[in-house]
Amino acid sequence: MLWKHRNYYRYRWKVRSAKTIIMKKKIFSLIFCVFCAVIVYAQNGLWTDEGNYSAEWFGSQYPSKEFHIKNAEELAALASVINNGYTFEDQKVVLDADIDLSQHYWMPTGMSAGNVSLARFSGIFEGNGHIIKGLKIHIASKNIADRIIYVGLFGLVGHGIIQNLTIDATSRITIISDKYLSEKGIRVGSFSGSCLDGSYINCVNEAEITIEKTAEYATAESISYIAGGIIGDGSGKIENCINKGNIKVEIYDNNYADNLPVVCGGIAGTIDDTEIISCTNFGNITAISPSSGAYAGGIFGDDRGTITDCINWGDITASGDFVTVGGICSYGEGNFNNCTNSGRISATSVYEMNVGGIVGTYYWSTDGLSYILMCRNCGEIICKPTFMMGVSIGGIAGFSGNRILNCWNLGNIVVNDSEDENRSDWATADIGGIAGAMENTVMNCYNRGSVSAETGLIECDVTINAGGIAGNVYSGSVGNSYNTGNVTAKSPFQSYSGGITGGTSNCFLSYYAEDIQISGKNLNEKGTPLTSEQMKGNDYNLAEILNDYAKVLTDANLWEYRADENDGYPVLTDKPASVLKMTTTYERIYGSNGKLVIVSSRPGRCAVYDIQGKLVCLLSVAGGENHFDLPPGIYIIGA
Questions:
Q1: Angle, CA 528 vertex, CA 549 and CA 581 arms, to 5°
Q2: pLDDT single digits (tens) 566-594
Q3: Could you tell me if residue 422 is left (phi over 0), alpha (psi between -120 and 50 degrees) or otherwise beta?
């Protein structure tokens, strides 16, 4: 069954690193020279045109460690200074007033580059709580061979800091690429198109960002279009930032458009080795690439960083040949802590589709320690694959190779094929309230939303796995969790459904409401059915039962009942600090010659229960193969 995951990453690309850029600081006369042959603007011209900017502040304050800017003409000169190679390294630029840029179009600093050095900002830009109004960037590009276009207030930021600044709703960033396009790609963010080890603190974007492209004669090489509310791509730190602007990347393609993936996120398009802390997105996110990949996330599109205390309120829409969508992140490898999605997710694909309320594809981490912790999804998830080939959809993660701990889903999940005339010889779909396809541990989670997956494709063998917690657990386990949502799996070929899991699973100490509707050709009866009253603590304290196992791993009570909350069902308390240190994943568990054998990738603690759920013993597991003596019997082994 593992074949289905290989295609998930077939079309991934590597974003060119800005780390190879070497800049030399130099003092110069202000001569503005930019790619005028490829940039088309309206008749009111650019701020960096002769006579539209004033550089007196630079000459009068140089070589000060702190420069002050008080009007649009002086801010325009900053762009011209940077475009001529001055980086402001170890210097600060301070904004002393609100700035209105509506009179002319803005030229991003260091906007485009081929085999030349890039102009970048490497200082501190202190916005002082001021507002930039009327920022307008409109670029119609053609024949930009071997260049990446960087677009934003700053095109490129290298080891710089942008802070305490707002770009208001009168601002617009629009990129229109015509059919003769042959560039390497576009990176767009309101504050910067790209950054290397930069920091963005207390920044607010209200501007709409739009990329539209006709790709009739695009080159065969992979070209990526990346947009974010704050930055396009990069590395560093983003903290206390807010996006309120809608972001849309749409590719209208014809011939040779198989390698045109689009990526967009409310805060950032793609990030690498980046911390994102306490950021919020309110803007709607749209990614469309009919013959290629569409990646969309409420906070960021592609992640290799750590995400903490982030919230998405915006609706997310994605459509493409293959689609990856997440309420927080489309494709992730880092850690997710205390994040929330409340936006509606809509996805349409021809082939593969990974969609999750928090993350669409959660790829295996190299150290095996990555996790999603204390995250929740409240948004509805609506998916429409043309045919169900490699479809994984979950309330928290679509596909996960890492741990999902202490999370919950309240959103309904609906999956229907599009009844297209195309047919696949064989296809599969994994749909779950917490995870669609799982290759690790789901622990201390609950689902309250309904899970429904249906296909009417008669001419192909479609197998649907639908579960209240997980669609299918290919490796790992589901434990100490509960579900109260209805589960539906309908296919003319095969369907597997269950209150906890649909397909194959290692499931222990998990519960589901016995009065929910579970429909499918084959029912997975794993899990313990309870009445709603029992789950709410009447004559049966489910929270206490769940805590019995949770305390083995964390020495803390994770579950409790709260008056007038969650319809009376147990809720999760604040995360304990020890929950991550004591949870481990076992590569293999089996009996041999009267001994219990546990093969583990790292040390940890393992709880052994009898068939009634009573704790038998607590084992210390070392890395490698472990052998334990137990009396003959049937046991439940906790992760």
A1: 25
A2: 999 999 987 443 333 333 456 677 666 76
A3: beta
Cα separations in angstroms, 312 against 49, 236, 282, 372, 465: 39, 21, 6, 16, 28
The 3-state secondary structure of 32-75 reads CCCCCCCCCCCCCCECCCCCCCCCHHHHHHCCCCEEEECCHHHH
DSSP state of 623: S
CA 579, CA 577: separation in Å to the nearest integer?
Answer: 6
Answer whether residue 347 shows pLDDT above 60. yes
Kind of pairing, strands 586-592 and 595-600?
A: antiparallel
Cα–Cα dist 535/510, whole Å: 12
CA distance 608 to 163: 52
Question: Of 9-23, 458-472, 607-621, which range is least confident?
Answer: 9-23
In the chain, the amino acid numbered 529 is P
Q: Are 500 and 525 in contact (CB under 8 A)?
A: no
Where residue 463 falls among pLDDT bands split at 50, 70, 90?
A: confident
pTM: 0.84
Half-sphere exposure of 560 (CA within 13 A, CB side): 9
Task: Please report the pLDDT score of residue 64 as a whole number.
Answer: 84
Q: Please report the sign of the dihedral spanned by the C-alpha atoms of residue 70, residue 71, residue 73, residue 78.
A: positive
The total of other beta-carbon atoms located within 10 Å of residue 344's CB is: 17
Whether a cis peptide bond, with omega within 30° of 0, leads into 63 is yes
Write the secondary structure of 499-518 as one string of H (helix), E (strand) and C (coil): CCECCCCCEECCEEECCCCE
Cα radius of gyration (the chain): 26
From CA 25, how far away is CA 85, in angstroms rounded?
Answer: 6
DSSP 160-224: -EEEEEEE-TT-EEEEEE-TT---SEEEEESSEEEEEEEEEEEEEE--EEEEEEE-TT--SS--E
Query: Which among 508, 506, 607, 609 has a CA at the least distance from the CA of 552?
Result: 607
Average pLDDT over residues 251-262: 65
**Residues 164 and 125 sit within 8 Å (Cβ to Cβ):** no
Q: What is the DSSP letter of 556?
A: S
Query: Please, which residues bridge with residue 498 across strands?
Result: 467, 524
Residue for token digits 């899990």?
527
Stated as kind and residue range, the H or E segment containing 77 is helix 72-83
Query: What totals of helices (H) and strands (E) does the chain contain, helices first?
Result: 5, 61
- Which residues on neighbouring strands pair with residue 141, listed in sequence order? 177
Q: Identify residue 134 by its one-letter amino acid code.
A: G
